Amino acid sequence: MMDHTAHTKRSLVSPIPARAGIGLKAQHYQEIIDTQPDIGWLEVHSENYMCAGGPTQNWLNAMRERYPISLHGVGLSLGTAGPLDPLHLERLVALERRVEPGWVSEHLSWSIASGVYLNDLIALPYTEESLGVFSEHVEEMQDALNRRVLIENPSSYLRYEHSVIPEPEFLLEVTRLSGCAVLLDVNNVFVSAMNHGFDPIQYLDQIPTQLIGEIHLGGHSQTVINGRTIRIDDHGSRVCDEVWELYEHLIARIGPTPTLIEWDSNVPELDVLLAEAAKADTIMAKAHPFALLQTSEEARHADAG
Amino acid sequence: MPMLAELQNAMRDVSLGGDAAVLAPAIIGDGFAAEQRLNIHRNNTTILLSDALAATYSVVYKLVGEDFFNAVARLFVRAQPPRSPCLFEYGMGFADFLATLPAAQGLPYLADIARLEWCWNEAFHALDVAPLTSVDLADVAPQSYGDLVFTPNPSLRLLASPFPIKEIWDVNQCGANPDASVNLDEGPQSLAVLRPRGSVEMIELSPGGFIFTEQLARGASLEQAFVTASNAEAQFDPSSTLTVLITAGAFHTFALKA
């Protein structure tokens, strides 16, 4: 077992503030540089910036000078049985050293089998075997980065016959075993709750405040199969009303927390993303009008646990 | 109860088009057939990877249209799925794959356009280095010029085609004149694709200039490269090609061959 304190004591160059941020999309680079909108922070998909060089790295550097950055990974596949891809982990470490992000996050899911990357975040069977595999991989990731990471709860479309541990318990057990914290995706909780028929509020309420480093909000789509609706997490639309209500419920309990607006397909004008972010900021401010008087929220979250 | 590795390999096969029935016993149906649930993941993989290919091969996409592209991309994704999660690296074999497709034979230049887009993609993401300039060569004695060897800019890619691929590429860019057309009989074209600074550039070379550049990029001396190029193009003039290459930033460092 590694020493968790190593991941919690490292001071952050640019922590993520307890405000709303947006996912950075290529089509918005220039407008953000030109207009420098008042947003708390930006998040990028780590894999898009692992190239040897070129303009995308320069754009990220330009953003980094203006905003705190969070690195959100989609390719480490922590849930895959067998070893992590050492080259990929190496590239993530190199990117992290260069960007000095406020947070580094990954998913409670898997995407790789026998070396093939499926470009899909697939839920795990929640078993003792999966718990061991996943927690060890989170530890390996944290050891390589020398920092605490966030793990995001998935959207899921199927469950396995041999799953025995409820997802929130599995996630909390991972945090206990590895020392990581949680990226709580409210939309994912809602999508999975609707798809599998559980209570999303109960799920959210199970995650302790001090473990939540970041929140994700995004849009999803609905598909009807056999006359029944299944919800698909495609980050292609506005955050729906039910998810905003869940978010208000969560914020009332845990206080202002870095909140990301994710929009990855059918990407709209920047203004639309900024309006969604402003909505999250308003919810945080209304629920906690005197939050500014508290000791720095970002410090609390960055050092959480 | 399947072990995790076994389950993941089976799901990988299903997501790449395999029979979902084998996995059905492991999946809770809950109002759906297990195959329908697995099909959501198969769609995710197929559609998201096809989108990644469409982003890299935007001219091919434009030339063949959405339906054809998606059908071909789906075949390619299943035959050659990515081995890396960095999708800017995905799709190297797409041009060769297109070349083997009977359905794509109506567009004989299609595979070369895909090759050009791959060159562009690699040049775009290559390591940034300071280009060699003529000032760097000021101290080289003229009698030693023949012994000069260069390291190429890491972004440099070379592509020769029997078709005017640069023109086809140009008229299929955003903002190009929609009425512009390309005469396919304009003949073969030899290109250097590189990104010395911010943007990717394409330089047309003569047949001799192409061989000359290819030789230099492989580490041949200026003298060796000139001889090889002259064998292919009797009237080959190395000085104009060399000027073009150095001005374009095609080289990074130089040395004198021992």
Fold and architecture overview:
The complex is a heterodimer of chains A (305) and B (258). Chain A is of the alpha/beta class. Chain A has one domain (5-302): Divalent-metal-dependent TIM barrel enzymes (TIM Barrel, Alpha-Beta Barrel). Chain A has helices at residues 5-8, 29-35, 55-66, 86-99, 128-145, 167-178, 186-196, 200-205, 241-254, 270-287, 297-302, and strands at 20-23, 42-45, 69-72, 103-107, 110-113, 116-122, 150-152, 181-185, 212-218, 221-225, 228-232, 259-262. The longest helix of chain A is centred in the middle third of the chain and has 18 residues, at 128-145. Mean pLDDT of chain A is 92; it is low at 1-11. Chain B is mainly α. In chain B, a hairpin with a 6-residue loop joins strand 3 and strand 4 (201-205). Chain B is built from 10 helices and 5 strands; from the N terminus they run ααααααββαββαααβ. Helices cover 46% and strands 10% of the residues of chain B. Chain B folds into 2 domains: 1-107, no CATH class; 109-258. The radius of gyration of chain B is 24 Å and the shape is elongated. In chain B, helix 3 (58-64) packs antiparallel against helix 6, helix 5 runs antiparallel to helix 6 (110-125) and helix 8 (207-217) packs antiparallel against helix 9. Classes of the chains: A alpha/beta (305), B mainly alpha (258).
Q: Which SSEs are present, and which pair or pack?
A:
The complex is a heterodimer of chains A (305) and B (258).
Chain A lengths: L4 H4 L11 E4 L5 H7 L6 E4 L9 H12 L2 E4 L13 H14 L3 E5 L2 E4 L2 E7 L5 H18 L4 E3 L14 H12 L2 E5 H11 L3 H6 L6 E7 L2 E5 L2 E5 L8 H14 L4 E4 L7 H18 L9 H6 L3
Chain B lengths: L3 H12 L18 H23 L1 H7 L1 H14 L14 H7 L9 H16 L22 E5 L4 E5 L3 H7 L17 E6 L6 E5 L1 H11 L4 H11 L5 H11 L2 E6 L2
Antiparallel strand pairs in B: 1-5, 2-3, 3-4
